Amino acid sequence: MRVCSIVPTPEFQYLYVHDVEQYARVLGSDGFNGRPLGNVWPEFECYSHNPLLAKGDFFGFTIGAFAMSQRATDLLSDLFLSVGELLPVSMEGERLYVLNITRFSDVLDPSRLVRKTLANKWIVGVERYAFIESTLRAESLFRIREEIGVLLTVTDHPDPKLDLRARSLQHGLLGLDFIPVSMA
Question: Of the candidates 6, 147, 149, 2, which has an alpha carbon nearest to the alpha carbon of residue 76?
């Protein structure tokens, strides 16, 4: 098993919301920080920053969230709904969904974890991760409180149903990169 951060593939389209003011009111200053948004989320109309880029099954959206096609949603909704909520958006009449991961996992070993700090000693994230191996077996997609904006997934999972990377490859879904995290 490996832990990877999930990032949108830069060669594919990113989505942007037309009504930035309403979007800011809904998200507040926290953005996608793991809190549920389904009860306040309208279906935002979006556009592609660069429509000349290829259209993948997954789209960049914002820090801490990505969007996906109806096809990706149909194929992977069991995995996504087990860790968060799917929020509707649309682009040119096509229904898409933003994954808001609301599941935080206690999988880090604080005694081995190496934190990123600024010169003033403020902690700003994780430099090298240290996971408790036994806790990862129950995980698929998750956030950690130490880096709220980072989406993590377990690849090469013993349970193929919990492996987003394997399932994406199996179905030929495009638009996400899986970057192994630096380990302590």
Answer: 6
Q: Which residues contact 28 (CB under 8 A, 6 or more apart)?
A: none
72-96 pLDDT, tens digit each: 999 999 999 999 999 999 999 999 9
pTM, two decimal places: 0.88
Domain ranges of the chain: 10-101, 114-180
**Cβ-proximal residues to 91 (8 Å cutoff; 6+ apart), any chain:** 15, 45, 46, 47, 48
Structure tokens at 92: 């040119």
pLDDT band at 124 (very low <50, low <70, confident <90, very high): low
Q: Note the residue count of the chain.
A: 184
